[in-house]
Design a protein that fits this description.
This protein has about 180 residues and is an alpha+beta fold. The protein folds into 2 domains: about 30 residues; about 150 residues, Glutaredoxin, CATH 3.40.30.10. It is built from 5 helices and 10 strands. The strands form 2 sheets. Strands 1-10-9-4-5-8-2-3 form an 8-stranded mixed sheet. A two-stranded antiparallel sheet has the order 6-7. A hairpin with a 4-residue loop joins strand 2 and strand 3. The chain is globular and about 35 Å long. About 25% of the residues are buried.
Amino acid sequence: MGTRKRFSLWFAILAFAVVAGVTGCKIQTPVAGPTPDLGPAPDVTFKDLQGNPVALSSYKGKVVLLNFWATWCEPCRGEIPLLIDLQQEYSSKGFTLLGASMDDDPMKVVPGFVKTTQFNVGGKQETMNYPIVVGSDDIATKFGGLLGMPTSFLISRNGKIVKRYMGPLNEAQFTKDLESQL
């Protein structure tokens, strides 16, 4: 089953759960937001857009925001201006953002998207300015799976997952979380 179809199924299940919760059924739905102390980040290796291996461990010593996203995901696209801004503001302080595309055919759609799609960042049109890698279901599973996108993980300098964010980032909360790690 393709990533888009799988997420459509998950969203349908989540919608049912929300409706069931409103009508009094006792179905527990996941709550968007950070989850404390998730332990060490898995030892995973992505591929960059040129097909070269990129080990997550190669970023040890930096604070990393690993952002699982897709070109077709509207909430993902909506948070990209914030991600561009965060990369610009904090990269000199030991932070990097790593965007893991979960598109069905990433090598076909993502390179063009990254090069040509512009986003309004502080009144300027900008393209994505952070490393983009290819995610996979296997890698996502090692992070506990994805209930939706975007899903992001804040990883400390020593490789521990500090927070998990489901859905678009809340800028004020994320900035506070990030600055506590720098």
